[in-house]
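Both lines are retained for reference:
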Amino acid sequence: MNTNKVSMARGSAVIAGALAAIGLLALSSACAFATSKDGIFPSADQVGGQVYVNPIKPGSSFPTDYPVFDLASKPVDLGKLMAGKKTVIAFFITAAPASVRDLKKLQDFMQANEPGVQLLGLNADTVGVALESGKPIEATARTLRIYEQEQKLKNLYVAPNDALDPKGLSNRLGFRGLSTVFVVKPDGVIEKVYVGPQNWKKGDI
């Protein structure tokens, strides 16, 4: 295999590892994350002692004490946004077109069938870290503004996620597929959880 092919193969492995780490690729429970830096699989201890943490489930309180930013890159209080309202939280990622389509499909369904329930789309990643002078929040918010305009998506937010940090958002909530949707009651308790594409119907929300 020549040098170019080796470099391409290594690059593909790194990309696949990064996508797997943020939940874009479906992996068996026997697999670990690959680091987005060099493609090396960390040990269970490096990711908090357990490769796949147990996800939060219906009946649990939905945590809101983590950084979330609006499209102006300003911090917002997710708890205040949700307080006293039935809320659907949809984690997605702009780097995966299918995830964005899932969000758009959910939004269209809710506008037609659940107008009294608020939908918040949380982009569980940051983009352009290496290319944006270390300003990932601003870069991600700018990308979301484009999707807001082009896809007519509403209520979009940046929810930074480090999948290799035991305290990272995806590890804390235990989600591995995108999109992941949480239906949360006005009292903050999770009612339902959906992972991946759905054929939404009345009663789901």
